[in-house]
Design a protein that fits this description.
Elements lengths: L10 E4 L1 H4 L10 H6 L1 H7 L3 E4 L27 H13 L3 E6 L9 H5 L6 E2 L16 E4 L4 E4 L16 H13 L5 E4 L16 E2 L3 E2 L9 H13 L7 E4 L6 H5 L10 E3 L1 H4 L5 H14 L6 E3 L9 H4 L5 H13 L3 E5 L53 H5 L5 H14 L1 H5 L2 E4 L5 E6 L3 E6 L5 E13 L8 E8 L3 E6 L3
Parallel strand pairs: 1-2, 1-13, 2-3, 3-7, 7-10, 10-11, 11-12, 12-13
Antiparallel strand pairs: 4-6, 5-6, 8-9, 14-15, 15-16, 16-19, 17-18, 17-19
Bound molecules: alpha-D-glucopyranose and calcium ion (CA).
């Protein structure tokens, strides 16, 4: 019997440079994360996903890896990571790293020493475009006199997975970290690892632009995921594979779970990209529920280092709406992944043009600004500006009405009530603007995302958590009324 610990877990994404700075150089680091474990344990999360921590020229802030088994000196050392894994483990918190198998940095020694690890052509062979803009995905390399492929920045050459010597390198990398107690990996662009062997043109659909059929989403990628799942399963407990399988086509996305033999979890971006609107979100969740194979488990997120913060994207900075969003993420069937600061209803930061460091346009920096620990921020000269600190950990920890305390209660409730983790998702009738669902027999979640008060009928139970905290403990038999931007979890009376 495989122990799928991640199905009960709450994940917490840490962008390492922006979370906590232990040595005061303005860059968050691994020792900083270790210092904040007390906070994370208090909050109640089960695992931390760290964005790439490896040596990197930082063209794409760690997603251009130049050494897959090292630690970036800005972030610490291998010993710091070992200490973090051990100290987190002592608090029941697991550590996940980020695997970047689609491409390396052009400064990885492979790029010079093993050109056969990359994808080359004498002339630009097709219409593939870089995801980061700027035109063709092919760049001329002066030294070799040929073009190489980069689905992302030119400094991120794509690996050639058709070369049978590439896969063993990544199995070695996985083992290296699994042997050191790393609990699993988030897999970067898990849908793109293999490219079309014949490098065929991507289809261009009038009005819709380019459809990435040959530069991504190749069937051979599933074989790689299967091999990694088998490898992860040889560890005790099994290591987790969480995929950034970026397809909004729900059937295609569901394919990355395979027959329960590929990804353990995949981010459900259909929900992430929906508006915080009852109709859109309930539709996205219904699609995911319908498409998922029996063995599969979605991962829900509203924020990340690419798309920015849910408090801004979904809630326009409104704390009540942010609480509704958090309540939803934590009570859908699946594993929630919070992004550092979501628990504070932290909004996107202000990064002026001169301070932008991202290689992509539009810049993703506003979603990557430092975690505000204190009313003053708690940072000295941080690498990205920290301008807005009104929502900070110190103030919210001291205030039992804060979103931080709300989130902590939500996590605790999820832990206490098994139906909120594993109960079947079943949507129930709700007026326009509202969205309500049962989890198993014992729990019900109701959100009013519209502008008018609503009533939801035939409810029996007591309010275990409400977004404004004032109605907890109230018994309901019959109609449940919800003000605009109000959400409630109702559980069966004990
Ligand atoms: C993924 C990462 C993103 C990165 C890109 C290239 O989409 O989330 O941050 O820039 O892959 O590695
Ligand atoms: Ca530091």
């Amino acid at each position: 019997m495989i122990e799928r610990w991640w199905r009960d877990a709450v994940l917490y994404q840490v962008y390492p440079r922006s979370f906590a700075d232990a040595n005061g150089d303005g860059i968050g680091d691994l020792a900083g994360v270790a210092q904040r474990l007390e906070y994370l344990e208090w909050l109640g999360i089960d695992a931390i996903w760290l964005n790439p921590v490896h040596p990197s020229p930082n063209v794409d802030w760690g997603y251009d890896v130049s050494d897959y088994t090292g630690i970036h000196p800005d972030l610490g050392t291998l010993e710091d990571l070992a200490r973090l894994v051990a100290e987190a483990g002592a608090r029941g918190i697991r550590i996940l790293l980020d695997l970047v198998p689609n491409h390396s940095s052009d400064r990885h020694p492979w790029f010079r020493e093993r050109p056969d690890f990359y994808v080359w052509a004498d002339e630009i062979p097709n219409n593939w475009e870089s995801i980061f803009g700027g035109g063709s995905a092919w760049t001329f390399d002066d030294e070799r006199g040929r073009y190489y492929l980069h689905n992302f920045a030119p400094q991120q050459p794509d690996l050639n997975w058709w070369n049978p010597e590439v896969a063993p390198e990544f199995e070695r990398i996985l083992r290296f970290w699994f042997d050191r107690g790393v609990a699993g990996f988030r897999i970067d662009v898990a849908h793109a690892i293999f490219k079309d062997r014949e490098l065929r043109d991507d289809p261009v659909i009038p009005g819709l632009g380019m459809r990435r059929r040959y530069s991504m989403f190749r069937p051979e990628t599933h074989g790689i995921l299967r091999d990694w799942r088998a490898l992860a399963g040889t560890y005790d407990p099994p290591r987790l594979l969480l995929g950034e399988a970026y397809s909004l086509d729900v059937e295609q996305w569901a394919g990355y779970f395979g027959d329960g033999d590929q990804l353990d979890l995949a981010f459900a971006f259909m929900l992430t990209h929906a508006d915080l609107d009852a109709e859109q979100m309930r539709g996205a969740v219904a699609d995911v529920e319908a498409a998922l194979p029996a063995n599969a488990w979605p991962c829900w997120a509203g924020s990340n280092h690419d798309i920015g913060r849910l408090a801004t994207r979904w809630a326009g900075g409104d704390d009540a709406r942010t609480r509704c969003a958090l309540m939803m993420l934590l009570t859908l069937r699946g594993t929630p992944c919070l992004y550092y600061g979501d628990e504070l209803a932290l909004t996107s930061g202000d990064v002026t043009a001169e301070r932008i460091v991202d290689c992509a346009t539009p810049s993703r920096d506003p979603g990557r600004t430092p975690m505000p620990w204190t009313p003053g921020g708690g940072w000295t000269d941080p690498w990205l500006p920290l301008t807005e600190t009104s929502r900070n950990v110190e103030a919210q920890r001291a205030d039992s009405d804060s979103t931080l305390h709300f989130t902590r209660h939500l996590i605790a409730l999820r832990r206490r009530i098994p139906a909120l983790r594993s109960g079947r998702y079943q949507e129930i009738a709700a007026p326009e603007g509202a969205w309500a669902w049962r989890r198993g027999d014992d729990a019900l979640v109701a959100l009013n995302l519209g502008d008018d008060p609503v009533e939801i009928g035939a409810i029996d139970g007591s309010i275990a958590l409400s977004t404004n905290r004032s109605r907890e403990g109230e018994n309901i038999s019959g109609n449940l009324t919800l003000a605009p931007s109000e959400g409630m979890i109702v559980v069966a009376k004990a």
